[in-house]
Design brief:
By secondary structure, the protein is mainly beta. The protein contains seven helices and 36 strands.
Length: 552
């Protein structure tokens, strides 16, 4: 939000200080209100400082600009006013600072005047003395084009009004919009905090720059970090944009985290490494490691949520520096890339990729058994579009709370997704899987799909093999193939409204399939064909063929 927008929110229009003529002695009075107790929400404005009938006011809380709807004013000019901020966080009095700006003799938005010497809307007529008003109404005011003529019977030219506006913009920007920690609150759901330029201590060892947020509220949203490094070492300059999707309780339990490197310049990656977020009982911590070069680092953090007040979450965030005992190596902390940079178009060899929902990381992981990725989707997104080799994604035991999407893979090779525990298919649980528009062979093995809607959706795919996969939990459909060829083998489907719904010319082979407590068994529709072999599923309504579908 720019300065003009903030002023207009309070009924102030700097442009009207000098139109084609006319000005008054405008005054801006900054005042720090006194905080006397912890968790304070009500402040007294010194008597005589502010008059709600004629003045305007802007409020800052801990350097945060507050919308007029965020506070209330009571009282009058004779007895003094009281300022109440009902949503002020519960903090100590040292961390509860309120500052106000009182604007006196400023034109009000919508207050227009007319006169032979003044242009409509240049200043509020009520702000002028009666003798000046009489001069204006009678067309007797003389226009002057300087700021030195001390004569209250004259009016100021528009060009000098522009000069005053420029100076006011500079004053507001320098005094109130260049704080050490600048913060904006936009409609409670989005907040931005700009930190001081971070200065590292040495060029000999690595150092950890850590952004620390006190954890006093439930957090569920996206933290976006925009970072720029530009200093003496030109070969280590550049920047990065990182998204942390974080869900954590105020008790310090992390229940969700994914990280996306949206962009990162090569030179920035040469000198910096982005860590996973860390959540404990008191804080959320975001770490950036400087490998060696002592470049300054500028960090801006934003937080967006649909639950609670965004600025209450990040208002008290700070940056700390911790020297490390050595220089981190590329083996320990590999060079990082954005998704666009790190995804080749075609495979060039057979690959094994490892994923662990419990010990993996989508930031520091490299897809090996020792450093696995954290989410299935991240592993899939790292794969090329053209698969001409054998690719196997190994899933460690655990629960993967995600809807994994495999979309648009083609080629002469094969993509397999399998649990490392082939003896216990229910040790590896996924919410659901979508396989879409794939013209490469895909296999899924020894998994459980436990989502509340569809278990496995296959649409417009060439050849899909599913072995040892259980689909259970209340939901609409277990297996839902459309315009696809599917082989479901040695698997089970339970508690679905429809166990299998074959649609739109699909060809489905079911072999050694068990299951029960389904409302409908197998449905074949719109020319689909389902071939059963050793199928022993039970359902309330049995199987059905409709609109040319075949079951045999």
């Amino acid at each position: 939000m720019d300065i003009g927008s903030i002023l207009r929110n309070h009924g102030i229009d700097i442009a009207k200080v000098g139109g084609d003529g006319g000005t008054v002695n405008t005054t801006i009075l900054p005042t720090a209100l006194q905080t006397t107790t912890d968790n304070q929400k009500v402040w007294d404005i010194p008597q005589g400082r502010f008059d709600n009938e004629s003045d305007s006011m802007i409020v800052f809380h801990n350097t945060v600009y507050l919308e007029p709807t965020s506070y209330t004013l009571t009282g009058d000019a004779a007895t003094g006013y009281t300022l109440t901020i009902p949503d002020a966080p519960d903090v100590t009095k040292e961390d509860n600072n309120v500052n106000i700006l009182v604007f006196k003799n400023f034109a009000e938005v919508g207050s227009l005047i007319s006169g032979t010497q003044l242009t409509d809307g240049s200043i509020a007529l009520s702000k002028l003395g009666q003798d000046i008003q009489d001069f204006i109404k009678n067309g007797q005011a003389e226009i002057v084009d300087n700021l030195t003529t001390a004569d209250k019977t004259k009016v100021l030219s528009a060009s000098q009004g522009v000069v005053i506006k420029e100076e006011l913009d500079k004053t507001l920007k320098n005094n109130f919009f260049n704080k050490d920690n600048m913060y904006f609150n936009l409609n409670n759901t989005f907040a931005v905090k700009q930190f001081n330029s971070h200065v590292f201590e040495n060029d000999t060892t690595s150092e950890l720059c850590e952004v620390v947020i006190p954890l006093s509220l439930t957090v569920t949203g996206i933290f976006k970090f925009t970072m720029v490094s530009s200093y003496a070492n030109s070969d280590a300059t550049g920047g990065a944009e990182i998204l942390f999707h974080v869900g954590a309780t105020e008790q310090g339990r992390l229940y969700h985290q994914t990280v996306d490197i949206v962009s990162m310049t090569t030179t920035f990656a040469d000198n910096f490494y982005i860590k996973d977020a860390i959540v404990d009982t008191n804080y959320i911590k975001f770490g950036i490691i400087k490998r060696q070069r002592k470049n300054h680092l500028s960090v801006q953090m934003s937080y967006q949520t649909v639950i609670g007040n965004a600025w209450n979450v990040i208002a008290n965030a700070n940056v700390y520096n911790y020297p490390m005992s050595n220089v981190i190596t590329l083996t320990e902390y590999p060079k990082q890339y954005s998704i666009a940079q790190s995804t080749p178009r075609t495979t060039n060899r057979n690959m094994d990729i490892f994923v662990s929902s419990e010990t993996g990381s989508d930031v520091s992981g490299i897809g090996t058994k020792g450093k696995p990725y954290r989410t299935i989707q991240f592993a899939i997104d790292k794969l090329p579009q053209i698969i001409d080799h054998s690719i196997t994604v190994y899933l460690e035991e655990g629960f993967y709370s995600e809807s994994a999407v495999i979309n648009g893979k083609v080629g002469r090779g094969r993509l397999n997704i399998t649990s490392v525990n082939t003896g216990n298919r229910r040790a590896t649980n996924i919410s659901r899987v979508y396989v879409l528009n794939c013209q490469v062979k895909i296999g899924m093995y020894y998994l459980s799909l436990t989502g509340s809607s569809e278990g496995l959706v296959i649409d417009n795919c060439h050849y899909i093999t599913v072995t040892g996969v259980d689909m259970y939990g209340a939901g609409s459909i277990g297996l839902y193939p459309k315009s696809s060829t599917v082989f479901l083998n040695s698997s089970g489907i339970w508690d679905k409204k429809t166990a299998v719904y074959a649609d739109e010319l699909s060809r489905v082979l079911l072999n050694s399939i068990v299951g029960k407590s389904n409302t409908n068994g197998i449905t074949s529709a719109y020319g689909a064909e389902v071939i059963k072999s050793s199928v022993s599923m039970t359902s309330t309504n049995g199987d059905s063929q409709t609109t040319g579908g075949i079951i045999r």
